[in-house]
Amino acid sequence: MKKSLLFSYISIFSFLIFAHSEIFALSLTDASESLSAAFEGLVDDNEGTTSFPSLLIPNGGRAESLGGAYTGYAYDVSFMNYNPAASSLQQETQFSIFHNSWIADSKMETIAYTTRFNNLGFGTQVQCFYMPFTEYNFIGERTAGSYYSETFLNLNVSYNFLAGYDFKGIAVGGNLKTGWRGMPDYTDKNTNALIPDSGLSQSALAIMADLGVMMQFNLFKVLFRSRTPNCKVGLSIQNLGVSITGFGSGTKIDDPLPTAVCAGFSYTFFPSFTVTADFRQPINLQNITHSQKFSIAAGTAIDITKNFTLLAGFNLKGANPKISAGTEFTFQKVCFNFNYTLDLASSINPINRISLSAKINLGDRGRSQNLSKIDELYTRGLVFYYNSDWENAIATWEEILEIDSHYDPAILGIKSAKSQMELYKKVKESLFFEE
User: By 3-state DSSP, what share of the chain in percent is helix, strand and coil, each rounded to 5?
Assistant: First the structure.
């Protein structure tokens, strides 16, 4: 039965992602021309002026399916490219693999891991963007061939301060990242011989950091009950740092990194329907007047079943709208994501991209068991309280605080039980009168 469901999910999405056939592309020509005209005034003259452009390429997965509207959502390990504060808010330990087929045979491969100890979160990620690099001489003969690549190592840590039952805390986190741009050696135009270390002189090293803040809370939560907050807001600053180039021939500061300030939010109307939105403002740290224009993104996630989710997103950067559609389904402990993106950068030839990801959920380090135990102890304490056995109620609720010191219902219950004991003592004393 499970295999049949898995096959059905794959079949459904196979139809969706391969819908960008010739017929589909032709039917979008008129629409894309209209969109291009509508956003023509947003053409950005500063586009492409930063180094390490692959930092702007999405890994894939749920984040890309939502159009990149992820700063205030950060549902899974993809948070590392959007809001580093979210590792302390993840429900489970996760290991993920992403593959994104980008433009002109270029690809992005990513491996990511995150885990959480109570309110302390950690994560690490390795990304590699690569594309073929082929050199030809003036008569069209191939003289050299290799790969241009940009590789990044990302280390993450975050902490959720003051987290409790009512107030969910303020999560603060950061990424420390290093990147290497690998340029292959090229040939001497006169001898057609490779010039040793010629690629190294154009390679670059980047050292940078991301900072993020995230809050989650309940807002107009009237359609369902759940411990999970239905509203999240996030703010992050990405790619703060410097790029150095010219190794082997005198180092120098490279073009600015794609630094940006991002703000986002997500809202769950009811458990199976969530909307997200993001605003991103690039900042040129070398010359603020050359900063690129802002971009916006929006997305929606609809849970069809517990294990099957439909996703859609829209992203507008400059005059370049992108539309994404994806699906996510869970089989055993593995969550698969298939995503299709239509990039309307060209009204004549829309660019179609497909990304795949697999996420393994490795458990929650006993947090769900602790919640079950807390529920049991709290209910037992209520029984003691109802029967005016306040001492046992207090003792029971104090056991909860040993598990979670910020569990507000237990704190309030203890305070109320102590007040009842004090009131009972005063009433009892008032029954005795001196002659």
Answer: 25, 40, 30
Question: At CA 60, angle to CA 268 and CA 18, rounded to 5?
Answer: 100
Cβ atoms of 295 and 315 closer than 8 Å: yes
Q: Of the ranges 77-91, 361-375, 384-398, which is most confident?
A: 77-91
Please report the DSSP string for 211-266 in residue order. Answer: EEEEEEE-SS--S---SS-SEEEEEEEEEEEEEEE-TTS--EE-SPP--EEEEEEE
Q: How far is CA 421 from the centre of its chain?
A: 49
Pick the closest to residue 199 from 150, 248, 243 (CA basis): 248
Tell me: the pLDDT tens digits for 250-298? 778 888 999 999 999 999 998 899 999 999 999 999 889 888 889 999 9
Integer Cα distance of 14 and 8 in angstroms: 10
* Distance, CA of 185 to CA of 199 (rounded, Å): 4
Tell me which DSSP letter residue 119 carries.
T
Give the C-alpha separation, 91 to 155, whole Å.
19
Q: Is 356 a residue whose pLDDT tops 80?
A: yes
